[in-house]
Amino acid sequence: MKEGLFISGRWKVCLMLRFGIATLFPDMCGSVLHYSILGRAQNQGLVSVEIHNIRDFTTDKHKRVDDMPYGGGRGMIIQADPVFRCYEFVRSKFPDKLRVVYLSPQGKTFNQRKALELSRFDGMVFLICGHYEGVDQRVLDEIVDEEISIGDYILTGGELSALVVVDAVVRLLPGVLASPDCFENESHFDGLLEYPQYTRPAVWRGRKVPEVLLSGNHSNIKSWQDRKSFEATLRKRPDILVNSF
User: Structure pTM?
Assistant: First the structure.
């Protein structure tokens, strides 16, 4: 296991921003968190991610955490008690600065503004991943501060959503990327989509890089980038422009 990743009681580091992920499939999350920017950020001590297996907190000898829904219906429901016990374990370490988020298709849609908000939280962001047909509503009512959705569609569980949230937030933390320019000029940060990007060669299959980008005139380049950013937003996501007014 690489330094900087904590799984159910085996390792921990104290940092300004921490993530906790409560899941039935810890290996699914851990395998992703080792790589690229997420892995480097943990190895550099810029963020910690704790992965908690909800099954570790059940009192059932067979590690069962689900049961049939009251009222009938297909599928199984994650029981309230194992989730609550997991929450209590995390809360015991972070009694004052714990923000509990349930990944749910019923939550508010995750966006860059929410990612920036979470990146400024001084404490533990605890992400609960649902599975099967969801989690017993009683424990959600008891402990959850907010629900977040990554889009209007249904996934098998909340693990992919949790990883999306962690990835989007971590890259905004100081020191993770080379400079703020690395994310401030990207799509959605300022309400617009990013302008087109090009690299060598200057001509590829007859297609040329726009001359202004080769001119060295930074003022003209900035004007071109701003115009292309607006045009891309108008063409691809006009709803962003409508919602900004």
Answer: 0.83
